[in-house]
Every structure is written in structure tokens, then in C-alpha cells.
Amino acid sequence: MTERRKTNKVRVGDTYIGGDAPVSIQSMINTPGDDVEKSVEQIRELEAAGCDIVRMAVPDTPALRSFAQIRKQIGIPLVADIHFDHKLALGALDAGADKIRINPGNIGPEERIRAVLSACRARNVPIRIGVNGGSLEKDLLEKYGHPVPEALVESAERHLRICREAEFDRVIVSIKSSRVPDMIQANLLFSERYEHPLHLGVTEAGTEHSGSLRSAVGIGTLLAVGIGDTIRVSLSADPVREIGVAKQILQALELRRGGVRVISCPTCGRSSFDVSAVAEALERRVQDIARDMTVAVMGCVVNGPGEAKEADIGIAGAGPGKVMLFENGNKTGILPLQGIVDILTARILKR
Ligand code: SF4
């Protein structure tokens, strides 16, 4: 894989984005803006699942009040997501926001952005300029006809100029589109020109299944060529599910160690047990186990042993009701199929 592109390192609360910091995982809560208790609960669930930075929409004053209360009850960096009203950004800074996300397409005149930058500077808080294909400035839409990659990059550049003029460089940029090729192209273009850390995401990606795939393609393509410092998988689903998908993207590219990877064969006529049922049950059981290892679930002894030997632990179907066990590349026994998920989980936990 290509070496990671060099970007500026920006502090967000007690973590960092860019530079040599590991690629971080973000999500956004979807609890009602005025429900502090539910929001804190969801943030804790996200954190437990592996979320590094969490964002909350602050669309109005009641949400701002909740933001202030939530900030006091959690440890993970909290980002205020602001559209339209820059005063809410100023309020969120007073409330202890660790980062401000503004959408340049709808925040209004430059003076407002400058006011936010100056308040951010006073508190050492970074901003994310979040360009979104669905809310591009009108004049850019007129100029380009559609939110094409060049238009998205120009929108980011316009706001980076304001930051530069204000000598404010704690800036993270995201350029999102619901069209995966546009999102990829826009981020490639941007990263050729700037060293600001990039927050990657496919916006309005879709439901859990299709959104995960589209995010994996968009985000994964960029990460594979060394672009991207923090990621958010957007799904029309429980945000906790976003974290699992984000972790899998990072694990697939070996950008994050830790966690049990379950690999399994596609099955064919030779399979002697229900590989999919065992692999899925095992994946659910091990999802919160932090050990860094690979477990192979293979249907038969034709190709199974080869893969199973490469894994830390592997099983291969060995006829009705039995599987062959491999550990660290060696065949170590025959196990009953019944209760195999419990047996494997116990062996994983022993390591
Ligand atoms: S491991 Fe065996 S059962 Fe699975 S796909 Fe390969 S040959 Fe078929």
C-alpha cells in the first residue's frame, strides 16, 4: 500500500487528526437534540464500540443547551455540527466544543466565518470545513452546472483562503458527495494541493448494507493510496453499526491492528457444515474482543487446511458433525461441530 500522505497534525480534544496520528473513527449521534440522557448513553455506546470522536448536530438554542450538558458528562472529543447560524458555533465553543464543523455553503458572509475562526483561535479549537455535494454554494453550482469534483474543491479552497487570511491553520477538510467517484476524485484533487488533514466519508451513503459497501469503496480507495486521516461511515442505521464498518475498513487495509478477523470460505458442494451460520455467529461473539488475530472457518479439507493454517486459529469441515482444528499453522485435533462457536471463542480468549 502507498505510504500515507503527509498532512498537518491537528489536536482535537485529547486526540489528534493528521500527521503521524492513526486514522481515527468518527460518528454522529442521532438522538433527539433535547434528550441529554439518551445522547450521553449513545455516546458511551459509540465510545465502547471504538469511536474516537463524536459529533452532534446543534441546529438551535435548545440543542446548544443540551450540547453544553453533554460535554460535561463525556470524555471523548465532542464536535458541534453547525449549519446556517454562526452564533451557534460561538455558543458551542463557550460550551466546550472540541471541534467545530461548519458547512461553508450555508454559513453566510465571510465575516461570520472570521468570527468563528477568531473564537476558535482563542480556545485552541480546530474547525472542519465540511463541503457537501448536496449543499454547494449557488454560484459554484451555476459555474459548474453540477456539484462536480472541481466545484467541491473550489468550495473548500474558497474557505481555506479565509482561514489563511485569518492566519488560522487548525483546519481539517472534508469533501463529501453521495456519488462515490466524485468523492474519490475530489479528495484526490484536494490532496495534490494541500496538506490539511482529510476527513473522509461518502455522504447519504444509504442503508446498512449498501451504505457500508459504498463507504468501503469510497473511503477504502482513498486510504489505499495514502489519503485520509479520519473517517466517518454514514449509514441510515444505529450509529454504533457505523463504527463496526469503519473498523473493518481500517482492518482490511491493515491501518488498524486489534480485533478478531473472521475469514470464511464461500462454501461449495464439498462443505460438510453450515459455514455461513458458524462464521456469522462467531463474528458476533468476537466483535468486542480486542486480540489481534485471524480465525478461519472453512467448509472442507480440500482448500480448508491451507487457509486455516495461515490463520491463528482455523477449522475445516472434516465430515458429518466434525471439524479439523488448526492452531498456529498446525493441525491440533478434531472437534465436534456442536458448540463449535463456544469452543473457538474460549480458545480465542485464552490467547
Ligand atoms: S474450503 Fe472447501 S467447502 Fe469451502 S469453498 Fe473451498 S472447497 Fe468449497
Description:
With 351 residues, the chain is of the alpha/beta class. It has two domains: 10-252, TIM Barrel; 260-350, Sulfite Reductase Hemoprotein, domain 1 (2-Layer Sandwich). Helices cover 42% and strands 21% of the residues. It has helices at 36-49, 61-73, 86-94, 110-123, 138-144, 149-165, 180-193, 208-224, 239-252, 275-286, 304-310, 340-350, and strands at 10-12, 15-17, 24-28, 53-57, 78-82, 99-102, 127-132, 171-176, 198-200, 230-232, 260-264, 293-298, 313-317, 322-327, 330-336. The strands form three sheets. Strands 3-4-5-6-7-8-9-10 form an eight-stranded parallel beta barrel, surrounded by seven helices. It has a five-stranded mixed β-sheet with strand order 11-12-13-14-15, sandwiched between helices. β8 (171-176), α7 (180-193) and β9 form a beta-alpha-beta unit. α1 (36-49) runs parallel beside α9 (239-252) and α6 (149-165) packs parallel to α7. It is elongated, with a radius of gyration of 23 Å. The mean pLDDT is 93. Bound molecules: iron/sulfur cluster (SF4).
